[in-house]
Amino acid sequence: MDTGLTAQLQSPDQNPNWAPANSIARDADKLTVRFDAFDATYEGKISADHTSIDGHFTQMGNELPLALKKI
Fold first, then answer.
1. Which of 20, 25, 30, 70 is the most exposed place for a label (fewest CB within 10 A)?
2. What is the SS3 assignment for 3?
3. pTM for this structure?
4. CA distance 49 to 29
5. d(CA 39, CA 27)
6. pLDDT value at residue 15
7. pLDDT of residue 2
8. Domains in the chain: boundaries
9. What single-letter DSSP state applies at residue 70?
10. Cβ–Cβ contacts within 10 Å for residue 44, how many?
11. Beta carbons of 56 and 65 less than 8 angstroms apart
12. Predicted local distance difference test score (pLDDT) of residue 14
């Protein structure tokens, strides 16, 4: 199903090319983005004012906190 959402990820240490998300799902304030090229997932909660997403990035079993903020 096309949600109209898009995302890309780049890791200069792993691959200089931008990789598109393989799947993006939003359920109310929860967002999940999957990048198969990096074996990675981002899961976060969208703020009520839609200016940030507080979540975590998981790659090959390693989880790191990652907050995204609109500038």
1. 70
2. coil
3. 0.87
4. 11
5. 22
6. 79
7. 61
8. 8-69
9. -
10. 20
11. yes
12. 82
**pLDDT string in tens for the chain (71-residue length):** 466 889 999 988 887 889 999 999 999 999 999 999 999 999 999 999 999 999 999 999 999 999 999 98
Q: What is the DSSP string of 36-61?
A: GGGTEEEEEEE-TTSSEEEEEEEETT
d(C-alpha 12, C-alpha 69), whole Å: 21
Residue 42, classified by CB atoms within 10 Å of its CB into exposed (0-12), middle (13-18) or buried (19+), is: buried
User: For residue 4, what are its two tokens?
Assistant: 């109209």
Return contacts of 1-6, CB within 8 angstroms, 24+ apart: none
Q: Give residues with Cβ within 8 angstroms of 49, minimum separation 6.
A: none
Angle at 16 between CA 14 and CA 20, to 5 degrees: 90
